[in-house]
Specification:
Blueprint: H1 4-17, H2 20-23, H3 28-34, H4 37-40, H5 55-59, H6 71-78, H7 86-111, H8 118-132, H9 145-152, H10 161-180, H11 194-216
Length: 232
């Protein structure tokens, strides 16, 4: 899956280039944190954590290899039109990101003749981590009563206050690590390529803008992020 620095880079691009009204976003802090929510209880990025939730429940996908989350299903279950909480919108955009990055990864490895499997997944994740460190990001969620309350009432499952704080600390560490590598040379990738990342970042940026604009207008964006089958 895209690392949190990649998710953050997409959020910062949206905020820099789009009107929040056009995107249907009212609270930037809630939306930013929502972009981390699906990963909190998976148990990798955030440690320690009070409990875990199965990846299949958090991401609507089989966790094997390179899954494509069903972002459309999440949207159908948990959004409520114009009144949708910004935390929910952020979680939806996280799943859209995961869906399209992983979809394009699966297409890429099929083209170059690499078989899916644990080693391919490990190589892919290492490349995502390397790409994520190329961004000059700065966004760290502000943990306040509004965020704590929104997380406690998150539509899919409650997020405990101690886990909100742990997730914010994890994001702060990620931002600090990225800022410490500002002058690092371009990464060398094991599986994917610079062109893959350039093209996929631009594509996902466009998809997020499109989906949020459709949502803001009261339309139905569930044509985005829906797997064609269980594995796509």
């Amino acid at each position: 899956m895209p690392s949190w620095n990649i998710h953050t880079a997409h959020v910062e691009r949206l905020f820099a280039n789009e009107s929040l009204d056009q995107l249907g976003i009212r609270d930037k802090n809630l939306f930013l944190f929502g972009n981390f929510v699906p990963d909190i209880y998976v148990g990798y990025v955030v440690q320690p954590i009070s409990h875990k939730i199965a990846y299949k429940e958090t991401h609507f996908a089989d966790p094997r290899y390179v899954p494509t989350p069903d972002a459309a299903r999440f949207y159908e279950l948990y959004t409520t039109g114009a009144k949708t909480d910004d935390l929910v919108l952020g979680a939806w955009t996280h799943l859209l990101c995961d869906h399209y990055y992983n979809l394009r990864t699966n297409e890429y490895i099929a083209r170059i003749g690499v078989k899916p499997g644990d080693q391919t997944r490990i190589r892919k994740q290492a490349d995502f981590d390397a790409f994520g460190r190329t961004f000059k990001i700065s966004s760290i969620p502000r943990v306040d009563e509004q965020l704590i309350r929104a997380c406690a009432h998150f539509a899919q499952y409650p997020i405990a206050s101690e886990d909100v704080r742990a997730a914010a600390r994890a994001q702060e560490r990620i931002v600090q690590q990225n800022q410490a590598t500002d002058d690092a040379p371009p990464p060398t990738y094991s599986l994917l390529s610079p062109d893959y990342f350039e093209q996929t970042f631009a594509e996902v940026d466009g998809i997020l803008r499109e989906g949020l604009r459709v949502h803001a207008r009261g339309g139905d964006p569930t044509y985005l992020g829906r797997p064609a089958n269980g594995n796509e």
